[in-house]
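Morning, I've got a small favour to ask if you have a moment. I've been staring at a protein lately and its backbone has me curious. You're getting the sequence in one-letter code plus the fold written as tokens. I've dropped the whole record in just underneath, so have a look:
=====
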Amino acid sequence: MNLWTVPNILTFIRIIATIPMFMITYDKNLYIIAFFVYILVSLTDLLDGYIARKYNLVSDFGKFMDQIADKILINALFIAFLDIHLIPGWFVAIIIVRDIFISGLRMFLANKNIVVAADMWGKLKTFSQTILIGSLYLSVQFSFLNSINTFLIWITAFFSIFSGYNYLVKNIAGFKGEENGQK
């Protein structure tokens, strides 16, 4: 298996981009720049999946690392936003606990040769997180977004909890020793 495919390189770029994104989140004077950099980094998530499917470069490694890259970037930024008091602790706890739980679920099932790919609810969770982060960056310049951010926090918390529950229910057969719901 060749790890250095274009989709995997884009995934690694997203992981590496976490460090400067995290650092600039602490300087509100850079939030407009941070917003555009975040959009570019987020687009690598769409692009890597598109390229992987179009050129038949989809791999279990890519599916797993793509989701890990999302979690690294998003959780790091949420921790920074929590530290500077733009989002509440309960919200960050929900996001991180859910992500660790689902990552553990994926690892457990991977040992049984079951790959848990992202589904619609997981993608809605990631999309809502992405919109929230973009809105948090823009809210420094556009204060009317603060009330929208409150709504986005609640909807993102809902998608996080529901998608975690959905992954658990859909893969409960794997815990019983059945593969993909079949004996």
Notes: The chain has seven helices and no strands. The domain at 6-175 is CATH 1.20.120.1760 (Four Helix Bundle (Hemerythrin (Met), subunit A)). The radius of gyration is 17 Å. The chain has a mean pLDDT of 90.
